[in-house]
Amino acid sequence: MHELLLRGGTLVDGQGERRADVLVRGREVVAVGEELNGVGSSVRVLDAGGCIVAPGLVDLHTHLREPGGEVAETVETGARAAATGGYTAVVAMPNTEPALDNASAVRDVLALGRSAMAEIAVAAAITVGRRGTTLVAMAEIAALGVHIFTDDGRGVQDARLMRRALEYSSDLGIVLAQHCEDEALAAGGHMHEGAWSSRLGITGQPAVAEEAMLARDLSLVRETGAPMHFLHISTAGSVELIARAKSAGLPVTAEVAPHHLLFTDAAVAGYDTAFKVNPPLRTEADVRALRHGLSDGVIDAVATDHAPHQAERKEEPFDLAPFGMTGLETSLALLHTITSGHTITSAHIGASGDTGTSAHTGTDATWHDGWPGGPCTPAELFAVVSWRPARIAKLDRASGGRHGGPVEAGAPANLVVFDPNETWIVDPGRMVSRSRNTPFGGMKLTGRVRHTIHEGEAVVVDQTPQR
Ligand SMILES: [Zn+2]
């Protein structure tokens, strides 16, 4: 039987860090130890020298755009981008056209995912058409194995409907995930409301638009006892609310997106639509609070909010261009760079290849700040992108899933091999995703995914997708 041997790496999982080779046969890890050799008839050796070998990454928040937005991404291309970034599983968001609000639509995406280069889990909508008025047939959809329900792209505005959805969700053992945005407060906003939005003359959405819905939902969680997950939280006030909810014992989890850990609203100064995202880039105080929240464990996971858009849409004027940026291929490297105390240097290249804009004026302080409490250990880094998100999505082994480790004999072979020392410059033109709307173009990052193993198959070898 065909075997794969990952040789010379350092194994990192929830059980710690040790020097070990990893032998894979079929879809499983069959041996972990020093100086291993294959025993089968054909052994393919992949060099993991100087690398971290860890359970594959799990993304809680990926927009795959299929059905309806295939011009920007498909299940297949999104999964290829995910594998390139070290992900072995992603949760596909339901804001497709039409929305994933019924069992048959969910079944179609799951079927497309079966041949993809990463496991595709699906989050289904909470309300029909994500219109916020009628609940979907949650029980029927949950029966397909769907664990997360969200109207992401929008928050559920109607508190009474949200309360009812939470009551149903606890009976079904599923979790509701909220995109916290009070639409009345956020109306017409294209960036964060603050000093920069006034200076630039762009309508902003205030931090309270996020925090008001978050506070409302935390009250509903307290009342119903139903668990909730909070998507892409972006403000210092949100971190404080989550911290208080957790210390009161509420069953809540939260994620932050990589871009909110790096950029401030000053990045919008060049009107580069690559920096237009929802929730918007916030202030330096928010970036600092999010970093502390992640490092203190108030925030459980980092999720990409990978939001591909075709170039034509992002070339529209700032107030017309859609929100969102890609992230699957840069997330781990970016996170490693900022949590290990490396400085990000950049000759900024916009998504369209233009150089020399003043887009980063004022963000230098953010970039050069060290990580709170000193550099992260590899186990701390991989916890927030692998085993903690695996648990939230119920893709971990304890929940019957195949991700998040630990890496041991008998475990599913979903693995990433990451070289923490390789430096590289992000080139939007060489992205694997069908879309190139990255704000990280031109940045020099430290650390790069070398190989990705999905279900025992080497889907990415030496940074190159194998199909
Ligand atoms: Zn969202």
Indicate the topology.
Blueprint: E1 2-7, E2 10-13, E3 16-19, E4 21-25, E5 28-33, E6 42-47, E7 52-55, E8 57-62, H1 75-84, E9 87-92, H2 103-113, E10 119-124, H3 138-142, E11 148-149, H4 159-172, E12 175-178, H5 183-186, E13 191-192, H6 195-200, E14 204-205, H7 207-224, E15 228-230, H8 236-247, E16 252-256, H9 284-296, E17 301-302, H10 311-314, H11 331-339, E18 345-346, H12 364-368, H13 378-392, E19 415-425, E20 443-454, E21 457-461, E22 464-465
Parallel strand pairs: 1-6, 2-7, 8-9, 9-10, 10-11, 11-12, 12-15, 13-14, 15-16, 16-17
Antiparallel strand pairs: 1-4, 2-3, 4-5, 7-19, 18-20, 19-20, 20-21, 21-22
Helix pairs in contact: 4-7, 7-8, 8-9
The structure holds zinc ion.
Zinc ion is lined by residues 152-153, 179, 231-232.
In short:
The chain is an alpha/beta fold.
Provide keyphrases for this structure.
globular, about 475 residues, about 25% helix, 13 helices, eight-stranded parallel beta sheet, alpha/beta, eight-stranded mixed beta sheet, binds zinc ion
